[in-house]
């Protein structure tokens, strides 16, 4: 006899999971009504006993490893910018459950591996919640594809709760810290330009180091980023002080590389400025500060300068406002002034 389990989705809708476990095979599927779940279970139980149930046959034929192999060969996966990280994550899943048939992968098993991921000792510390959630997302993508291939009838990762991630860092440079960092960076002119570029545009480290001269138009006051984290092309505003610095930097550019910041020894690769950055950060006496925090600093300055969350999201290259809401408190005075102006207009 099939088991019918009721669950409630995040939107508040009811779903009914029909679960069949027979000696001849297993199957499960979710429905919006209990009647539909019972009807499907009755039919499928009979088909499993007769050996004519195709869905059960497919999920019994293939293993998790086979699913991962096919997923990695998919063209869309090959085009992913974070392909290497996802490959590493999927290899973890292969090592844990790769030999299991797809039909034997349950939500309970996924939860068991999730908890193992979260508690495993990695060099004296455990994985961060965000890292565990990325591992879950990778295997979930696989099962979603397997649904398209009709290898499975449900994604067992759906409904598995993600770990609570800490709020994003709000670390940004005070006026005094910013001046100390700029002064310390000036000893290495190229590093100084990189820091100013990050502070004035909010660009990520990888975006800055991937810049090519063919994409920099100083007359138009912009640089085009073709490869960004969210996959969309974005323009960086190159104006004011950073435009002057870029113009000077272009006068001494290397002719054997189109990179704006090439490595001195291997010009085909971007410069690894980590050592110079550590020295400047130490001399500036900055505590708990990373290069990526220059991006947070730029966003914070924009908010305090009166930019709206939508404007900050567009400048930083975020597709939604969720990632920039952390800066909303910094623009409270701007919001208050807008409301005050509106009240003066309509009430006199």
Fold and architecture overview:
The chain contains 15 helices and 6 strands. The protein has helices at residues 34-50, 54-61, 64-73, 75-78, 83-97, 107-119, 129-148, 175-185, 189-201, 205-209, 241-251, 274-283, 293-304, 309-316, 332-347, and strands at 3-8, 14-22, 25-31, 216-217, 222-225, 234-237. The protein has 348 residues and is mainly alpha-helical. It folds into 3 domains: 1-60, Double Stranded RNA Binding Domain (2-Layer Sandwich), CATH 3.30.160; 62-166, DNA polymerase, domain 1, CATH 1.10.150; 175-341, Intergrase catalytic core (hpI Integrase, Chain A), CATH 1.10.443. The strands form 2 sheets. A 3-stranded antiparallel sheet has the order 1-2-3.
Classification by helices and strands: mainly alpha
CATH architectural designation of the largest domain: Orthogonal Bundle
The backbone outline, from C-alpha atoms, is elongated
The spatial strand order of the largest sheet comes to: 1-2-3
State the total count of DSSP E strands: 6
Q: What percent of the residues sit in helical stretches (DSSP H or I)?
A: 40-55%
């Amino acid at each position: 006899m099939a088991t019918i389990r009721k669950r409630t989705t995040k939107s508040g809708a009811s779903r009914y999971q029909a679960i069949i476990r027979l000696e001849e095979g297993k199957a499960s599927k979710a429905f919006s009504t209990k009647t539909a779940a019972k009807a499907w279970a009755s039919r499928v139980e009979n088909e499993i006993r007769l050996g004519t149930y195709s869905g059960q046959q497919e999920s019994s034929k293939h293993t998790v490893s086979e699913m991962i192999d096919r997923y990695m060969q998919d063209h869309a996966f090959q085009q992913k910018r974070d392909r290497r990280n996802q490959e590493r994550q999927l290899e973890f899943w292969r090592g844990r459950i790769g030999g299991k048939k797809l039909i034997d992968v349950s939500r309970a098993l996924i939860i068991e591996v999730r908890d193992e991921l979260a508690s495993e000792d990695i060099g004296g510390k455990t994985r961060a919640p965000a890292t565990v959630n990325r591992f879950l997302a990778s295997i979930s993508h696989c099962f979603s594809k397997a649904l398209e291939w009709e290898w499975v009838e449900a994604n067992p990762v759906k409904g598995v709760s993600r770990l609570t991630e800490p709020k994003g860092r709000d670390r940004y440079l005070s006026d005094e810290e910013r001046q100390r960092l700029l002064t310390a960076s000036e000893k290495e002119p190229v590093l100084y330009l990189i820091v100013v570029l990050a502070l004035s545009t909010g660009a990520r480290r990888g975006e800055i180091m991937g810049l090519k001269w063919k994409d920099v138009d100083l007359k138009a006051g912009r640089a085009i980023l073709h490869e960004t984290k969210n996959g969309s092309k974005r323009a960086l505003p190159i104006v004011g002080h950073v435009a002057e610095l870029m113009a000077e930097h272009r006068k001494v550019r290397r002719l054997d590389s189109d990179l704006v910041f090439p490595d001195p020894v291997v010009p085909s690769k971007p410069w690894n400025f980590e050592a110079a950055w550590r020295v400047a950060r130490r001399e500036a006496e900055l505590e708990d500060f990373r290069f990526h925090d220059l991006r947070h600093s730029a966003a914070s300055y924009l908010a305090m300068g009166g930019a709206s969350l939508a404007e900050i999201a567009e400048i930083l290259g975020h597709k939604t406002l969720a990632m920039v809401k952390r800066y909303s408190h910094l623009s409270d005075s701007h919001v208050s002034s807008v409301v005050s102006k509106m009240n003066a207009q309509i009430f006199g």
